[in-house]
Amino acid sequence: MTSTRAGGTATGFVALPDCALPQHVATHADRLPTIVRHSSGRPWLVGAAPADRVSIRCDDPARVVVLGAAPGTTHAGDPLAPPADCFLGSSAEGRTRLLGSASGLQRLFHARVQGVTIVSDRADILAGFLGAELDDAWLATGLIGPLPPHPLDQLVPWRGVTAVAAGDAITLTPDGRHRIDRWWHPPTSDRHLPAGAELVRTALESAVAQRLHATGGMPIGADFSGGMDSTSLTFLAARGDIPVVALTVRHIDPASDDAYWADRAARHLPRVERTVLDEAALPTFFSGIGAARADAPAATSRGSAVFRACADHYRAHAATRYLAGHGGDELFSTTTGYVHDLARSRPVEAFRQIRALRARRGWRRAEIARSLADRQSYGEWLAAAADRLERGDSKDPNPFGWGPPLELAPWATPDGAAAAAALLRSRAQSAQPLAPHRGIHEALQQIRSGAALYRLIRQEFSEPRIELPFLDDPVIDAALAVRAVERYDAYEYKPLLAAAMRDVVPDEILARRTKADTGPAWFRGLAAQRAALLERADASPLAAAGLVDRARLRAAIEAPALRFAAHLERTLDYDAWLTTRAGKDPT
User: Fold this and answer.
1) d(CA 218, CA 229)
2) Superfamily for 193-278+293-331+442-510?
3) Could you tell me which of 580, 477, 522 has the C-alpha nearest to residue 285?
4) What is the DSSP string of 214-239?
5) Beta 321-323 vs 161-163: how paired, if at all?
6) What is the pLDDT of residues 516-556, one digit of tens each?
7) By the 8 A CB rule, do 306 and 288 touch?
8) Which helix (H) or strand (E) holds 277?
9) Domain ranges, ordered by start, for the chain
10) Which CATH superfamily does the domain covering 12-182 fall into?
Protein backbone atom coordinates (compact mmCIF):
# COMPACT_ATOMS: atom_id res chain seq x y z
CA MET A 1 0.00 0.00 0.00
CA THR A 2 2.91 2.37 0.33
CA SER A 3 3.72 4.50 -2.66
CA THR A 4 7.16 4.53 -4.25
CA ARG A 5 8.60 7.97 -4.89
CA ALA A 6 11.35 8.92 -7.32
CA GLY A 7 14.80 8.79 -5.86
CA GLY A 8 13.69 8.07 -2.32
CA THR A 9 12.23 5.70 0.21
CA ALA A 10 8.66 4.49 -0.10
CA THR A 11 6.51 6.53 2.27
CA GLY A 12 2.91 6.99 3.19
CA PHE A 13 1.07 6.23 6.41
CA VAL A 14 -2.39 5.11 7.46
CA ALA A 15 -4.00 6.03 10.78
CA LEU A 16 -6.38 3.45 12.25
CA PRO A 17 -9.02 3.94 14.95
CA ASP A 18 -8.57 2.34 18.37
CA CYS A 19 -11.27 -0.28 17.88
CA ALA A 20 -11.78 -3.74 16.43
CA LEU A 21 -11.11 -3.48 12.71
CA PRO A 22 -13.13 -5.18 9.97
CA GLN A 23 -11.28 -8.13 8.47
CA HIS A 24 -10.66 -6.37 5.16
CA VAL A 25 -9.05 -3.35 6.86
CA ALA A 26 -7.07 -5.51 9.28
CA THR A 27 -5.72 -7.69 6.46
CA HIS A 28 -4.54 -4.68 4.46
CA ALA A 29 -3.06 -3.00 7.55
CA ASP A 30 -1.19 -6.15 8.56
CA ARG A 31 0.77 -5.97 5.30
CA LEU A 32 2.25 -2.62 6.34
CA PRO A 33 4.97 -1.98 8.92
CA THR A 34 3.69 -0.64 12.24
CA ILE A 35 5.00 2.83 13.12
CA VAL A 36 3.32 3.14 16.53
CA ARG A 37 0.51 1.42 18.45
CA HIS A 38 -2.33 2.74 20.56
CA SER A 39 -1.89 2.18 24.30
CA SER A 40 -4.41 -0.67 23.87
CA GLY A 41 -1.85 -2.49 21.75
CA ARG A 42 -3.87 -2.10 18.55
CA PRO A 43 -2.01 -0.66 15.54
CA TRP A 44 -2.44 3.10 15.25
CA LEU A 45 -0.09 4.29 12.49
CA VAL A 46 1.05 1.84 9.83
CA GLY A 47 3.00 2.30 6.65
CA ALA A 48 6.45 3.65 5.97
CA ALA A 49 8.04 6.85 7.19
CA PRO A 50 11.76 7.69 7.28
CA ALA A 51 13.06 7.09 10.80
CA ASP A 52 14.68 10.53 10.93
CA ARG A 53 11.29 12.18 10.36
CA VAL A 54 9.32 10.48 13.10
CA SER A 55 9.18 11.56 16.74
CA ILE A 56 7.09 9.57 19.24
CA ARG A 57 6.31 10.37 22.86
CA CYS A 58 4.55 7.78 25.00
CA ASP A 59 3.08 8.89 28.32
CA ASP A 60 0.67 6.03 29.00
CA PRO A 61 -2.12 5.99 28.19
CA ALA A 62 -1.38 8.85 25.75
CA ARG A 63 0.70 8.79 22.60
CA VAL A 64 1.92 11.83 20.64
CA VAL A 65 3.62 11.52 17.27
CA VAL A 66 5.16 14.02 14.87
CA LEU A 67 5.59 12.83 11.28
CA GLY A 68 7.50 14.65 8.59
CA ALA A 69 9.91 16.77 10.62
CA ALA A 70 13.15 15.70 12.24
CA PRO A 71 12.84 15.08 15.99
CA GLY A 72 13.33 18.28 17.93
CA THR A 73 12.30 20.60 15.09
CA THR A 74 8.70 21.35 16.05
CA HIS A 75 7.79 24.80 17.27
CA ALA A 76 10.02 25.76 20.16
CA GLY A 77 10.89 22.08 20.52
CA ASP A 78 7.40 21.39 21.93
CA PRO A 79 5.95 18.17 20.45
CA LEU A 80 2.44 19.29 21.44
CA ALA A 81 2.67 22.55 19.48
CA PRO A 82 0.84 22.76 16.13
CA PRO A 83 3.08 21.47 13.32
CA ALA A 84 4.97 23.62 10.86
CA ASP A 85 5.92 21.24 8.05
CA CYS A 86 4.72 18.00 9.58
CA PHE A 87 1.74 16.01 10.81
CA LEU A 88 0.78 15.92 14.47
CA GLY A 89 -1.13 13.01 15.97
CA SER A 90 -2.33 12.05 19.43
CA SER A 91 -3.98 8.93 20.79
CA ALA A 92 -5.60 8.73 24.22
CA GLU A 93 -8.61 7.01 25.77
CA GLY A 94 -9.66 5.42 22.50
CA ARG A 95 -9.64 8.65 20.49
CA THR A 96 -7.02 9.64 17.96
CA ARG A 97 -6.63 13.13 16.52
CA LEU A 98 -4.53 14.10 13.51
CA LEU A 99 -3.82 17.36 11.79
CA GLY A 100 -1.62 18.63 9.00
CA SER A 101 -0.38 22.11 8.23
CA ALA A 102 -2.37 25.33 7.87
CA SER A 103 -1.31 25.70 4.23
CA GLY A 104 -2.22 22.16 3.24
CA LEU A 105 1.38 21.30 2.36
CA GLN A 106 0.95 18.41 4.79
CA ARG A 107 -2.51 17.17 3.90
CA LEU A 108 -4.74 14.39 5.21
CA PHE A 109 -7.46 12.29 3.59
CA HIS A 110 -10.09 10.00 5.05
CA ALA A 111 -12.31 7.18 3.82
CA ARG A 112 -15.03 4.99 5.25
CA VAL A 113 -14.06 1.34 4.79
CA GLN A 114 -16.49 -1.37 5.96
CA GLY A 115 -17.94 0.87 8.64
CA VAL A 116 -14.78 2.45 10.04
CA THR A 117 -12.96 5.65 9.11
CA ILE A 118 -9.28 5.46 8.29
CA VAL A 119 -6.93 8.34 7.51
CA SER A 120 -3.82 8.70 5.34
CA ASP A 121 -1.45 11.33 4.01
CA ARG A 122 -1.99 9.93 0.49
CA ALA A 123 -5.33 9.61 -1.26
CA ASP A 124 -4.12 6.69 -3.40
CA ILE A 125 -3.40 4.56 -0.35
CA LEU A 126 -7.00 4.95 0.84
CA ALA A 127 -8.21 4.23 -2.70
CA GLY A 128 -6.29 0.97 -2.46
CA PHE A 129 -8.08 0.03 0.77
CA LEU A 130 -11.42 0.83 -0.86
CA GLY A 131 -10.69 -0.61 -4.28
CA ALA A 132 -12.03 2.75 -5.46
CA GLU A 133 -12.49 3.87 -9.03
CA LEU A 134 -11.55 7.26 -10.42
CA ASP A 135 -14.22 9.94 -10.14
CA ASP A 136 -15.15 10.95 -13.69
CA ALA A 137 -16.46 14.35 -12.50
CA TRP A 138 -13.01 15.16 -11.03
CA LEU A 139 -11.42 14.95 -14.48
CA ALA A 140 -12.95 18.31 -15.39
CA THR A 141 -10.73 20.07 -12.81
CA GLY A 142 -7.92 19.60 -15.33
CA LEU A 143 -9.68 21.97 -17.74
CA ILE A 144 -10.10 24.89 -15.32
CA GLY A 145 -7.29 27.39 -15.01
CA PRO A 146 -5.16 28.89 -13.76
CA LEU A 147 -6.00 26.44 -10.93
CA PRO A 148 -9.29 25.08 -9.59
CA PRO A 149 -10.73 27.49 -7.02
CA HIS A 150 -11.97 26.61 -3.56
CA PRO A 151 -13.79 24.28 -2.96
CA LEU A 152 -12.87 22.45 -6.17
CA ASP A 153 -9.31 22.31 -4.86
CA GLN A 154 -10.62 19.87 -2.22
CA LEU A 155 -11.72 17.30 -4.77
CA VAL A 156 -9.92 13.95 -4.85
CA PRO A 157 -9.43 11.73 -7.93
CA TRP A 158 -11.10 8.70 -6.31
CA ARG A 159 -14.67 8.07 -5.29
CA GLY A 160 -15.10 7.56 -1.57
CA VAL A 161 -11.91 9.40 -0.57
CA THR A 162 -12.30 12.85 1.00
CA ALA A 163 -9.68 15.50 1.75
CA VAL A 164 -9.39 17.07 5.19
CA ALA A 165 -9.35 20.81 4.56
CA ALA A 166 -6.16 22.73 5.30
CA GLY A 167 -6.39 23.98 8.87
CA ASP A 168 -8.83 21.23 9.92
CA ALA A 169 -8.17 18.29 12.24
CA ILE A 170 -9.81 14.88 12.15
CA THR A 171 -10.64 12.80 15.23
CA LEU A 172 -11.28 9.06 15.04
CA THR A 173 -13.62 7.84 17.78
CA PRO A 174 -13.76 4.40 19.48
CA ASP A 175 -16.88 3.47 17.49
CA GLY A 176 -14.98 3.81 14.21
CA ARG A 177 -16.56 7.12 13.25
CA HIS A 178 -14.91 10.51 12.85
CA ARG A 179 -15.46 14.21 13.31
CA ILE A 180 -13.79 17.26 11.81
CA ASP A 181 -12.93 20.43 13.71
CA ARG A 182 -11.07 23.61 12.84
CA TRP A 183 -7.72 24.12 14.56
CA TRP A 184 -6.33 27.05 12.53
CA HIS A 185 -7.80 30.46 11.72
CA PRO A 186 -6.08 33.31 9.89
CA PRO A 187 -4.77 35.96 12.29
CA THR A 188 -6.28 39.41 12.55
CA SER A 189 -4.46 41.66 10.08
CA ASP A 190 -3.78 44.56 12.40
CA ARG A 191 0.00 44.92 12.62
CA HIS A 192 1.89 47.75 10.98
CA LEU A 193 4.76 46.97 8.64
CA PRO A 194 7.75 47.55 11.00
CA ALA A 195 6.43 45.28 13.77
CA GLY A 196 5.07 42.76 11.28
CA ALA A 197 8.34 42.59 9.36
CA GLU A 198 10.17 41.80 12.60
CA LEU A 199 7.78 38.91 13.24
CA VAL A 200 8.24 37.60 9.69
CA ARG A 201 12.01 37.72 10.03
CA THR A 202 11.91 35.90 13.38
CA ALA A 203 9.64 33.22 11.94
CA LEU A 204 11.87 32.74 8.90
CA GLU A 205 15.01 32.64 11.02
CA SER A 206 13.44 29.90 13.13
CA ALA A 207 12.19 28.00 10.07
CA VAL A 208 15.63 27.98 8.44
CA ALA A 209 17.38 27.15 11.74
CA GLN A 210 15.12 24.09 12.11
CA ARG A 211 16.19 22.87 8.68
CA LEU A 212 19.85 23.40 9.49
CA HIS A 213 19.42 21.46 12.73
CA ALA A 214 17.71 18.62 10.85
CA THR A 215 20.75 18.05 8.62
CA GLY A 216 22.69 16.56 11.53
CA GLY A 217 25.73 18.58 10.51
CA MET A 218 25.63 17.58 6.85
CA PRO A 219 25.49 20.24 4.08
CA ILE A 220 22.18 21.82 3.17
CA GLY A 221 21.35 22.72 -0.40
CA ALA A 222 19.85 26.05 -1.45
CA ASP A 223 18.13 26.97 -4.67
CA PHE A 224 19.81 30.30 -5.40
CA SER A 225 17.98 31.57 -8.46
CA GLY A 226 18.57 35.25 -7.81
CA GLY A 227 14.93 35.94 -6.92
CA MET A 228 14.09 37.61 -3.63
CA ASP A 229 12.56 34.49 -2.08
CA SER A 230 15.42 32.04 -2.66
CA THR A 231 18.04 34.72 -2.01
CA SER A 232 16.51 35.50 1.40
CA LEU A 233 16.62 31.85 2.45
CA THR A 234 20.22 31.45 1.26
CA PHE A 235 21.37 34.46 3.28
CA LEU A 236 19.57 33.16 6.38
CA ALA A 237 21.13 29.71 5.96
CA ALA A 238 24.59 31.23 5.49
CA ARG A 239 24.41 32.72 8.98
CA GLY A 240 24.48 29.23 10.52
CA ASP A 241 27.31 26.76 11.01
CA ILE A 242 26.10 24.20 8.47
CA PRO A 243 27.79 24.16 5.03
CA VAL A 244 25.52 25.65 2.37
CA VAL A 245 25.59 24.31 -1.20
CA ALA A 246 23.91 26.90 -3.43
CA LEU A 247 22.78 26.21 -6.99
CA THR A 248 22.01 28.75 -9.72
CA VAL A 249 20.69 27.98 -13.20
CA ARG A 250 21.87 30.48 -15.81
CA HIS A 251 19.33 30.79 -18.62
CA ILE A 252 20.32 31.43 -22.22
CA ASP A 253 17.80 34.25 -22.67
CA PRO A 254 19.72 37.54 -22.26
CA ALA A 255 16.56 39.20 -20.92
CA SER A 256 16.55 36.84 -17.91
CA ASP A 257 18.41 38.70 -15.18
CA ASP A 258 18.06 36.11 -12.39
CA ALA A 259 21.64 34.88 -12.67
CA TYR A 260 22.92 38.49 -12.76
CA TRP A 261 21.25 39.15 -9.41
CA ALA A 262 22.46 35.84 -8.03
CA ASP A 263 26.02 36.79 -9.05
CA ARG A 264 25.69 40.11 -7.21
CA ALA A 265 24.28 38.42 -4.11
CA ALA A 266 26.97 35.71 -4.14
CA ARG A 267 29.67 38.33 -3.66
CA HIS A 268 28.25 38.85 -0.16
CA LEU A 269 28.32 35.12 0.65
CA PRO A 270 31.99 34.07 0.69
CA ARG A 271 31.35 30.97 2.85
CA VAL A 272 28.68 29.54 0.56
CA GLU A 273 29.76 26.91 -1.99
CA ARG A 274 28.01 27.92 -5.18
CA THR A 275 27.61 26.12 -8.49
CA VAL A 276 26.22 27.70 -11.65
CA LEU A 277 24.60 25.33 -14.15
CA ASP A 278 24.15 26.65 -17.66
CA GLU A 279 20.76 25.97 -19.20
CA ALA A 280 22.47 24.50 -22.27
CA ALA A 281 24.00 21.76 -20.10
CA LEU A 282 20.64 20.77 -18.62
CA PRO A 283 17.82 18.72 -20.14
CA THR A 284 15.28 20.84 -21.97
CA PHE A 285 11.84 21.55 -20.56
CA PHE A 286 9.31 18.77 -21.26
CA SER A 287 12.01 16.12 -21.57
CA GLY A 288 11.91 12.99 -19.47
CA ILE A 289 8.19 12.98 -18.66
CA GLY A 290 7.99 9.66 -16.89
CA ALA A 291 5.66 7.63 -14.72
CA ALA A 292 3.73 9.80 -12.27
CA ARG A 293 4.14 8.86 -8.62
CA ALA A 294 2.05 11.46 -6.78
CA ASP A 295 -1.51 10.85 -5.60
CA ALA A 296 -2.83 13.52 -8.03
CA PRO A 297 -1.41 15.21 -11.14
CA ALA A 298 1.74 17.14 -10.21
CA ALA A 299 3.01 20.19 -12.09
CA THR A 300 6.11 18.40 -13.34
CA SER A 301 5.66 17.86 -17.08
CA ARG A 302 7.69 20.97 -17.86
CA GLY A 303 10.59 20.70 -15.45
CA SER A 304 10.87 17.11 -14.24
CA ALA A 305 14.21 16.43 -15.95
CA VAL A 306 15.66 19.70 -14.63
CA PHE A 307 14.43 18.82 -11.13
CA ARG A 308 16.23 15.49 -11.33
CA ALA A 309 19.46 17.08 -12.59
CA CYS A 310 19.46 19.59 -9.72
CA ALA A 311 18.65 16.83 -7.22
CA ASP A 312 21.61 14.83 -8.52
CA HIS A 313 23.83 17.86 -7.90
CA TYR A 314 22.70 18.17 -4.28
CA ARG A 315 23.16 14.45 -3.67
CA ALA A 316 26.68 14.65 -5.10
CA HIS A 317 27.42 17.24 -2.40
CA ALA A 318 25.94 15.05 0.38
CA ALA A 319 22.94 17.33 0.88
CA THR A 320 19.87 15.32 1.93
CA ARG A 321 17.59 18.39 1.89
CA TYR A 322 17.57 21.76 0.21
CA LEU A 323 15.90 25.12 0.73
CA ALA A 324 13.57 26.38 -1.99
CA GLY A 325 11.79 29.72 -2.23
CA HIS A 326 8.49 28.23 -3.43
CA GLY A 327 5.62 29.76 -1.51
CA GLY A 328 7.18 33.20 -1.37
CA ASP A 329 5.22 34.44 -4.39
CA GLU A 330 1.99 33.09 -2.94
CA LEU A 331 2.61 34.69 0.45
CA PHE A 332 4.07 38.08 -0.46
CA SER A 333 2.97 38.99 -4.00
CA THR A 334 0.22 41.54 -4.56
CA THR A 335 -3.32 40.29 -5.11
CA THR A 336 -6.19 42.37 -6.48
CA GLY A 337 -9.09 41.29 -4.28
CA TYR A 338 -7.82 43.41 -1.39
CA VAL A 339 -8.43 46.57 -3.47
CA HIS A 340 -12.16 45.83 -3.33
CA ASP A 341 -11.92 45.79 0.47
CA LEU A 342 -9.64 48.82 0.55
CA ALA A 343 -12.07 50.91 -1.49
CA ARG A 344 -14.54 50.67 1.38
CA SER A 345 -12.16 51.51 4.21
CA ARG A 346 -9.50 53.72 2.61
CA PRO A 347 -10.76 54.92 -0.80
CA VAL A 348 -7.90 57.35 -1.41
CA GLU A 349 -5.30 54.61 -0.96
CA ALA A 350 -7.44 52.22 -3.03
CA PHE A 351 -7.40 54.57 -6.01
CA ARG A 352 -3.64 55.03 -5.64
CA GLN A 353 -3.25 51.26 -5.98
CA ILE A 354 -5.73 51.12 -8.86
CA ARG A 355 -3.67 53.63 -10.87
CA ALA A 356 -0.65 51.34 -10.78
CA LEU A 357 -2.65 48.16 -11.46
CA ARG A 358 -4.55 49.78 -14.34
CA ALA A 359 -1.33 50.95 -15.99
CA ARG A 360 0.10 47.44 -15.71
CA ARG A 361 -2.94 45.44 -16.78
CA GLY A 362 -4.78 47.74 -19.15
CA TRP A 363 -8.11 47.77 -17.33
CA ARG A 364 -10.79 50.18 -18.58
CA ARG A 365 -12.31 52.74 -16.24
CA ALA A 366 -15.81 51.35 -16.78
CA GLU A 367 -14.90 47.79 -15.75
CA ILE A 368 -13.01 49.12 -12.72
CA ALA A 369 -16.07 51.06 -11.61
CA ARG A 370 -18.37 48.06 -12.11
CA SER A 371 -16.00 45.77 -10.25
CA LEU A 372 -15.67 48.10 -7.27
CA ALA A 373 -19.48 48.31 -7.06
CA ASP A 374 -19.85 44.53 -7.32
CA ARG A 375 -21.58 42.81 -4.38
CA GLN A 376 -21.49 39.20 -5.58
CA SER A 377 -21.21 36.53 -2.92
CA TYR A 378 -18.54 33.91 -3.40
CA GLY A 379 -21.09 31.37 -4.61
CA GLU A 380 -22.49 33.87 -7.11
CA TRP A 381 -18.98 34.57 -8.39
CA LEU A 382 -18.41 30.83 -8.97
CA ALA A 383 -21.77 30.48 -10.70
CA ALA A 384 -21.02 33.43 -12.98
CA ALA A 385 -17.65 31.85 -13.83
CA ALA A 386 -19.43 28.60 -14.70
CA ASP A 387 -21.72 30.47 -17.10
CA ARG A 388 -18.73 32.12 -18.79
CA LEU A 389 -16.85 28.83 -19.17
CA GLU A 390 -19.84 27.13 -20.75
CA ARG A 391 -20.26 30.04 -23.20
CA GLY A 392 -16.57 29.90 -24.07
CA ASP A 393 -16.09 33.47 -22.80
CA SER A 394 -12.60 33.86 -21.30
CA LYS A 395 -13.02 37.54 -20.42
CA ASP A 396 -13.85 38.19 -16.78
CA PRO A 397 -15.31 41.72 -16.40
CA ASN A 398 -14.55 41.74 -12.67
CA PRO A 399 -10.87 42.53 -11.98
CA PHE A 400 -11.51 42.81 -8.22
CA GLY A 401 -13.47 39.59 -7.83
CA TRP A 402 -12.93 36.71 -5.44
CA GLY A 403 -9.89 35.44 -7.32
CA PRO A 404 -8.10 35.43 -10.65
CA PRO A 405 -10.35 35.00 -13.69
CA LEU A 406 -11.20 31.37 -14.36
CA GLU A 407 -10.58 30.13 -17.89
CA LEU A 408 -11.24 26.95 -19.79
CA ALA A 409 -8.46 25.11 -21.62
CA PRO A 410 -8.77 26.26 -25.27
CA TRP A 411 -8.86 22.65 -26.50
CA ALA A 412 -11.76 21.62 -24.27
CA THR A 413 -14.65 20.03 -26.16
CA PRO A 414 -18.26 21.18 -25.65
CA ASP A 415 -18.68 18.18 -23.35
CA GLY A 416 -15.56 19.25 -21.46
CA ALA A 417 -16.87 22.79 -21.09
CA ALA A 418 -20.22 21.49 -19.87
CA ALA A 419 -18.52 19.17 -17.36
CA ALA A 420 -16.33 21.97 -15.98
CA ALA A 421 -19.31 24.33 -15.71
CA ALA A 422 -21.44 21.66 -14.03
CA LEU A 423 -18.68 20.99 -11.50
CA LEU A 424 -18.45 24.67 -10.63
CA ARG A 425 -22.22 25.05 -10.34
CA SER A 426 -22.55 21.98 -8.14
CA ARG A 427 -20.24 23.60 -5.58
CA ALA A 428 -21.37 27.21 -6.05
CA GLN A 429 -24.73 26.65 -4.38
CA SER A 430 -23.20 25.92 -0.97
CA ALA A 431 -19.71 27.41 -1.34
CA GLN A 432 -18.45 29.67 1.43
CA PRO A 433 -15.30 31.79 0.99
CA LEU A 434 -12.17 31.07 2.98
CA ALA A 435 -12.65 34.45 4.69
CA PRO A 436 -15.45 37.07 4.65
CA HIS A 437 -13.43 39.64 2.70
CA ARG A 438 -12.03 39.19 -0.80
CA GLY A 439 -8.47 40.19 0.01
CA ILE A 440 -7.84 37.65 2.75
CA HIS A 441 -9.83 34.98 0.87
CA GLU A 442 -7.62 35.45 -2.18
CA ALA A 443 -4.48 35.42 -0.04
CA LEU A 444 -5.52 32.14 1.58
CA GLN A 445 -6.48 30.66 -1.79
CA GLN A 446 -3.03 31.53 -3.18
CA ILE A 447 -1.30 29.90 -0.23
CA ARG A 448 -3.44 26.75 -0.41
CA SER A 449 -3.07 26.44 -4.20
CA GLY A 450 0.70 26.81 -3.96
CA ALA A 451 0.93 24.31 -1.12
CA ALA A 452 -1.13 21.80 -3.11
CA LEU A 453 1.26 22.13 -6.06
CA TYR A 454 4.42 21.75 -3.97
CA ARG A 455 2.99 18.88 -1.94
CA LEU A 456 2.66 16.87 -5.14
CA ILE A 457 6.08 17.92 -6.42
CA ARG A 458 7.57 16.67 -3.15
CA GLN A 459 5.87 13.32 -3.70
CA GLU A 460 7.44 13.08 -7.15
CA PHE A 461 10.90 14.16 -5.94
CA SER A 462 11.28 13.11 -2.32
CA GLU A 463 15.08 12.95 -2.09
CA PRO A 464 16.74 15.28 -1.41
CA ARG A 465 13.84 16.65 0.61
CA ILE A 466 12.56 20.00 -0.66
CA GLU A 467 12.29 22.37 2.31
CA LEU A 468 9.74 25.17 1.97
CA PRO A 469 10.05 27.58 4.92
CA PHE A 470 7.68 30.16 3.40
CA LEU A 471 4.83 27.67 3.85
CA ASP A 472 5.50 27.02 7.55
CA ASP A 473 2.55 27.90 9.76
CA PRO A 474 4.41 30.52 11.87
CA VAL A 475 5.67 32.29 8.73
CA ILE A 476 2.16 32.39 7.27
CA ASP A 477 0.74 33.64 10.57
CA ALA A 478 3.34 36.40 10.79
CA ALA A 479 2.79 37.57 7.21
CA LEU A 480 -1.01 37.55 7.34
CA ALA A 481 -0.99 39.50 10.62
CA VAL A 482 0.27 42.58 8.73
CA ARG A 483 -2.36 45.01 7.47
CA ALA A 484 -3.09 44.35 3.79
CA VAL A 485 -2.51 47.98 2.85
CA GLU A 486 1.08 47.59 4.10
CA ARG A 487 1.60 43.94 3.13
CA TYR A 488 0.81 44.68 -0.52
CA ASP A 489 1.75 47.66 -2.64
CA ALA A 490 1.31 47.81 -6.40
CA TYR A 491 4.23 50.26 -6.55
CA GLU A 492 6.69 48.03 -4.69
CA TYR A 493 7.89 44.45 -5.03
CA LYS A 494 7.10 42.30 -1.98
CA PRO A 495 7.41 45.17 0.51
CA LEU A 496 6.83 42.96 3.57
CA LEU A 497 9.56 40.45 2.69
CA ALA A 498 11.95 43.28 1.77
CA ALA A 499 11.35 44.93 5.14
CA ALA A 500 11.77 41.60 6.96
CA MET A 501 15.11 40.91 5.27
CA ARG A 502 16.58 44.35 5.92
CA ASP A 503 20.01 43.90 7.58
CA VAL A 504 20.00 40.23 6.47
CA VAL A 505 20.13 40.70 2.69
CA PRO A 506 22.12 43.69 1.36
CA ASP A 507 20.01 46.69 0.32
CA GLU A 508 21.38 46.58 -3.22
CA ILE A 509 19.87 43.10 -3.63
CA LEU A 510 16.55 44.01 -2.02
CA ALA A 511 16.32 46.92 -4.45
CA ARG A 512 15.62 44.55 -7.34
CA ARG A 513 12.29 45.33 -9.04
CA THR A 514 12.31 42.80 -11.89
CA LYS A 515 11.08 39.22 -12.07
CA ALA A 516 12.45 36.98 -14.80
CA ASP A 517 10.43 34.31 -16.56
CA THR A 518 11.40 31.20 -18.49
CA GLY A 519 9.33 31.86 -21.62
CA PRO A 520 12.17 31.36 -24.14
CA ALA A 521 13.25 28.13 -22.43
CA TRP A 522 9.61 27.00 -22.52
CA PHE A 523 9.45 27.46 -26.30
CA ARG A 524 12.81 25.75 -26.80
CA GLY A 525 11.68 22.78 -24.75
CA LEU A 526 8.44 22.42 -26.69
CA ALA A 527 10.31 22.56 -29.97
CA ALA A 528 12.88 19.98 -28.86
CA GLN A 529 10.28 17.57 -27.47
CA ARG A 530 7.52 18.19 -30.01
CA ALA A 531 7.47 14.65 -31.44
CA ALA A 532 7.20 13.03 -28.00
CA LEU A 533 4.52 15.50 -26.89
CA LEU A 534 2.48 14.94 -30.04
CA GLU A 535 2.65 11.22 -29.36
CA ARG A 536 1.28 11.90 -25.89
CA ALA A 537 -1.47 14.08 -27.34
CA ASP A 538 -2.50 11.25 -29.67
CA ALA A 539 -2.83 8.95 -26.65
CA SER A 540 -4.43 11.60 -24.38
CA PRO A 541 -6.73 10.04 -21.75
CA LEU A 542 -8.59 13.36 -21.46
CA ALA A 543 -9.29 13.21 -25.18
CA ALA A 544 -10.39 9.58 -24.86
CA ALA A 545 -12.82 10.73 -22.16
CA GLY A 546 -14.30 13.24 -24.58
CA LEU A 547 -13.13 16.28 -22.61
CA VAL A 548 -10.31 17.44 -24.90
CA ASP A 549 -10.22 17.92 -28.66
CA ARG A 550 -7.15 15.97 -29.77
CA ALA A 551 -6.63 18.03 -32.95
CA ARG A 552 -6.68 21.32 -31.09
CA LEU A 553 -4.31 19.95 -28.45
CA ARG A 554 -1.90 18.90 -31.19
CA ALA A 555 -2.18 22.36 -32.74
CA ALA A 556 -1.32 23.96 -29.38
CA ILE A 557 1.86 21.86 -29.25
CA GLU A 558 2.81 22.56 -32.86
CA ALA A 559 2.15 26.32 -32.64
CA PRO A 560 2.35 27.11 -28.92
CA ALA A 561 1.21 30.37 -27.33
CA LEU A 562 2.72 31.48 -24.03
CA ARG A 563 -0.67 32.82 -22.96
CA PHE A 564 -1.91 29.23 -22.71
CA ALA A 565 1.26 27.80 -21.17
CA ALA A 566 -0.37 26.96 -17.83
CA HIS A 567 -3.28 25.23 -19.57
CA LEU A 568 -0.98 23.17 -21.78
CA GLU A 569 1.19 22.08 -18.87
CA ARG A 570 -1.88 21.21 -16.84
CA THR A 571 -3.29 19.03 -19.62
CA LEU A 572 0.06 17.27 -20.01
CA ASP A 573 0.25 16.75 -16.24
CA TYR A 574 -3.22 15.20 -16.10
CA ASP A 575 -2.59 13.02 -19.13
CA ALA A 576 0.72 11.75 -17.74
CA TRP A 577 -0.88 10.94 -14.38
CA LEU A 578 -3.91 9.20 -15.92
CA THR A 579 -1.66 7.24 -18.27
CA THR A 580 0.43 6.01 -15.34
CA ARG A 581 -2.67 5.03 -13.37
CA ALA A 582 -3.92 3.05 -16.34
CA GLY A 583 -0.58 1.24 -16.53
CA LYS A 584 0.10 2.43 -20.07
CA ASP A 585 2.94 4.91 -19.60
CA PRO A 586 5.27 4.71 -22.62
CA THR A 587 8.33 5.20 -20.42
Assistant:
1) 23
2) HUPs (3.40.50.620)
3) 522
4) HTTTS-EEEE--SSHHHHHHHHHHHT
5) unpaired
6) 888 899 999 999 999 999 999 999 999 999 999 999 999 99
7) no
8) strand 273-278
9) 12-182, 193-278+293-331+442-510, 339-438, 519-581
10) Aminohydrolase, N-terminal nucleophile (Ntn) domain (3.60.20.10)
